[in-house]
């Protein structure tokens, strides 16, 4: 029988699902791997949440956190992120950061991506979303 609680999917999160952010509790039970960057992306912010848009021409590295997650967590996040109607869950390559500054390319990482440039959002060209909950 398939174990839906086994952490087997790689997922990079860049916004409110990060540690210390308002949605970080949804990652309870996931295994934190480390900090990473999502290349060729653009980050936009609105009062409720950020959006990540892929852009091979004008994109930059967006800071994220890499996790291993279970089927159960993926099901919950799909509902929260409105996949596939609002955000699309795509498999991308990310760059994992190590303590000594070593960078590893990791393929087949799920990322929730906004399918087009959002109207009304403000671009965060630092590539680092932070709105830490106090």
Task: Describe, in plain words, how this protein is organized in 3D.
The chain is mostly beta strands. It has one domain: Hypothetical upf0131 protein ytfp, CATH 3.10.490.10. It has one helix and seven strands, in the order ββββαβββ. Strands 1, 2, 3, 4, 5, 6 and 7 form a seven-stranded antiparallel β-sheet that branches. A hairpin with a 5-residue loop joins β5 and β6. The longest helix has 11 residues. It is globular, with a radius of gyration of 14 Å.
Question: Could you outline the blueprint of secondary structure elements for this entry?
Answer:
Blueprint lengths: L8 E5 L17 E15 L4 E5 L5 E10 L1 H11 L6 E10 L5 E11 L8 E2 L11
Antiparallel strand pairs: 1-4, 2-3, 2-4, 2-5, 2-7, 5-6
Share of residues in helices? under 10%
Question: What is the SS-derived class?
Answer: mainly beta
Total E-strand runs: 7
What are the segments in which pLDDT stays under 50 over at least 5 consecutive residues? none
Strand coverage percent = 35-45%
- Helix and strand succession? EEEEHEEE
**What is the first-to-last residue Cα distance?**
41 Å
- CATH class annotation: Alpha Beta
CATH topology type:
Hypothetical upf0131 protein ytfp
CATH homologous superfamily grouping: Gamma-glutamyl cyclotransferase-like
The whole-angstrom Rg is: 14 Å
> CATH architecture, please?
Roll
Total helix count?
1
Largest sheet: 7 strands, antiparallel
Mean pLDDT reading:
90
Cα shape: globular
Number of domains: 1
